[in-house]
Amino acid sequence: SLASTAITCFTRGLDLRKGTEDVLCPADCPLWQFYVFGDGVYASLSSVCGAAIHSGVITNIGGAVRVQTLPGQENYPAVNANGIQSQVLSRWASSFSVTAGTKNTALEAVGRSVSTARPSTGKRPKKTLDKKAGNKDCKADIAFLIDGSYNIGQRRFNLQKNFVGKVAVMLGIGTEGPHVGVVQASEYPKIEFYLKNFTAAKEVLFAIKELGFRGGNSNTGKALKYTAQKFFSLENGARKGIPKIIVVFLDGWPSDDLEEAGIVAREFGVNVFIVSVAKPTTEELGMVQDIGFVDKAVCRNNGFFSYHMPTWFGTTKYVKPLVQKLCSHEQMLCSKTCYNSVNIGFLIDGSSSVGESNFRLVLEFVSNVAKAFEISDIGSKVAAVQFTYNQRTEFSFTDYITKEKVLAAIRNIRYMSGGTATGDAISYTTRNVFGPVKDGPNKNFLVVLTDGQSYDDVRGPAAAAQKAGITVFSVGVAWAPLDDLKDMASEPRESHTFFTREFTGLEPMVPDIIRGICKDFLDSKQ
Question: Which segments constitute the VWFA domain (predicted)?
Answer without folding.
Answer: 141-326, 343-513
